Amino acid sequence: MDSVLQYLVEAAARCPDKVALADGEQAFTYRELLEQSRQVGAFISSREPPGRPIGVLAKHCAATPLLFYGALWAGCFYVPLDPELPSAKLQRLLADCNPSLVLTTDAGDPLPFSGETVCLADALSRGAGRPLPCPEGGPEHPLCLLYTSGSTGTPKGVLKSHGAVKSFVEAFLSTFPLSPDEVLGNQTPFFFDASAKDLYLSMRLGARLEVLDASLFTFPVRLIEHMNRRQVTCISWVPSALALVTQLNTFQEIKPQYLRQVFFVGEVFPMKQLNRWRAALPHVRFTNLYGSTELAGVCCYYEVAGDYSDSDALPIGRALPNCRVFLSDGQEPVRRPGEIGEICVCSPALALGYYGDEEKTAAVFRQEGAQKVLHTGDLAQYREDGLLMFAARRDHQFKHMGRRIEAGEIEAAALALEPILRCCCMYQQERGKIILACQLAPGCQETARDIRAALKQSLADYMVPSKVVLLPEIPLNANGKIDRPALRLSLGI
What we know:
Layout (H helix, E strand, L loop, with lengths): L4 H10 L4 E4 L4 E3 H16 L7 E5 L6 H10 L3 E5 L5 H11 L3 E4 L11 E4 H8 L14 E7 L7 E6 H14 L7 E4 L8 H11 L2 E4 L8 H10 L4 E4 L1 H9 L13 E4 L6 H10 L4 E6 L9 E4 L14 E2 L4 E5 L4 E2 L6 E6 L6 E2 L3 H7 E4 L2 E12 L5 E6 L3 E4 L2 E4 H9 L4 E9 L4 E8 L7 H8 L11 E4 L13 H8 L2
Parallel strand pairs: 1-10, 3-4, 3-5, 5-6, 9-10, 9-11, 11-12, 12-13, 26-27
Antiparallel strand pairs: 1-2, 7-8, 8-19, 13-14, 14-15, 16-17, 16-18, 18-21, 20-21, 21-22, 23-24, 25-26
Helix pairs in contact: 1-2, 1-7, 2-3, 2-5, 6-7, 9-10
InterPro entries: AMP-bd_C (IPR025110), AMP-bd_C_sf (IPR045851), AMP-binding_CS (IPR020845), AMP-dep_synth/lig_dom (IPR000873), ANL_N_sf (IPR042099)
Pfam families: AMP-binding (PF00501), AMP-binding_C (PF13193)
Organism: Acutalibacter muris
């Protein structure tokens, strides 16, 4: 069995009565997860041929991965869908992947969907007593189809294989000494790429995955109390979730008692917030991860060491052992420190491509000689010591007053200011203006003029924002990242 199902089968044999998945309301042992997911798989295989997409309305609860595994037992691949999506957008995604079956954790409102919608209880009932064929396919067999909006806001489906996920899991665990005793605190929604890392690492270890309810992040003290009750030892969160804890001075009231390892991924972690985490929890290991939706898991890591000022930037570090990561100027590799190039990745963890879009797949996953190379669209440079430093998204660059500017450099300068909680820099091309949208930390009274004046102390004149806009809240997308298209729309840019 050359698939991620092997992780579940082996864990269920080693520790059948150990809790595999839990949230605040329910829990599944490895035995229950194996038996019930096979039952769901038997139901699916009775009506769907292998290789078909199975939609899963991915509610953030312990039951959702059971549905994922059910699809895999049937030899199909799952498509996790955000249950909070507007009906029109959900309809577009369903039309794109065209499943004939969507699974849900519980019965709810009807979906904008012509196929059949089946809840977990019904799937278990209809699968009871049915035979389950041996799942077809090897490492190249599709595992999941993940939709990401990208920078344009247009959804694109990235298809990943069993072999890609297994390659990442094995490489990650050869790098980081995680054990079966871990309790992984899952923050990222199951329709978000980063959650697969939590799920399959915990299954491979035979550890416990504790699904943290999104409402806990509104009250960080309650969040840490809950983590202490559940004895969470390891977390891999987006930086905005981590920053929320320190922005509200949570550690002055309570600290995580069992936490040993913190990974962060998905966006740049403001250094002043990371410094507060490190100061409060000096015994904890902090690791910056870098990856792309177009590969399974991550490809680079940097274990934070030494002191950094609030205005410093962290490296994304070096490649995992299953990846070859290099920089390219579009013609040849970039090797000189300080020179900017596009991050390119060769690895067995690369995705299969974009679902139903051969042209886009060929443009991003380029065949270069005997190997396939992922061109990420992210820019980076080497430090003198050979570590990679993230520079920007290529589509977040702009030219102003004859100079090429990285929006991320302006954002980093703003985030180093004490009043700034969150910010986003955008360029208004038709007017030639740099716009910086800022959300202030609670209790701060600074004006837009104050922020602009402070930035003049740290930025070159041509980089100082033409306009600073203070907002009560900067919109985030479902993945916890700044929603740039929504922000542009609200500001009329």
